[in-house]
Specification:
Layout: H1 27-49, H2 52-69, H3 75-96, H4 104-107, H5 110-121, H6 126-133, H7 137-154
Helix pairs in contact: 1-2, 1-3, 2-3, 3-6, 5-6, 5-7, 6-7
Length: 168
């Protein structure tokens, strides 16, 4: 478990009122954070975009954004900051070059695909997913319900997955 943070709490605003960049002395802690979460971030990006190059670019953009923001004092805050940065990068990537994964998941609209991936693929709880998506818990639950209904219509159970008929 990551015990450190990647920036010191002594960051001062610049003359323009923005936060100064994180202290490079905290780079080892940031690197540990990325090593702990890079596979999960990339998996989310690939499932959302359906393209390895696009997923790599979005993941890298999220890491750079999270580093520039220096958005957390605890590992949980740092993970949330990475997820929010990833969601923002995925939305930008989708607007730039719309792509989708193959199969039924690719047929689900991007706005519904993201919550589905965060909760059902990446295993985030509802609170984490709502935070990453900058939405309310109620809206997240509604999006998940719509996405799951759509996915069920697009990929109904095949006969090999259905339970055997009774009396057989």
């Amino acid at each position: 478990m990551l015990m450190g943070v990647w920036f010191s709490s002594s960051r001062r605003p610049t003359a323009q009122g923005r936060q100064a960049p994180p202290n490079l002395a905290d780079l080892p802690a940031f690197n540990r954070l990325i090593l702990a979460h890079q596979t999960r971030l990339y998996t989310i990006a690939y499932r959302a975009l359906g393209s390895h190059p696009a997923a790599e670019v979005a993941t890298q953009a999220a890491v750079e954004s999270a580093y520039r923001q220096g958005a957390g004092h605890s590992p949980a805050q740092a993970e949330c900051a990475l997820l929010r940065s990833l969601v923002a990068a995925l939305r930008r990537a989708h607007l730039t070059v719309p792509s989708a994964p193959d199969g039924p998941l690719g047929e689900v609209p991007f706005d519904l695909r993201l919550p589905l991936i965060l909760v059902d693929v990446a295993g985030l709880n509802y609170d984490q997913a709502a935070d990453a998506l900058h939405t309310t818990l109620v809206e997240l639950i509604q999006q998940l319900a719509r996405a799951r209904r759509m996915l069920c219509r697009l990929a109904p159970l095949t006969s090999s997955l259905q339970p055997p008929a009774s009396g057989v």
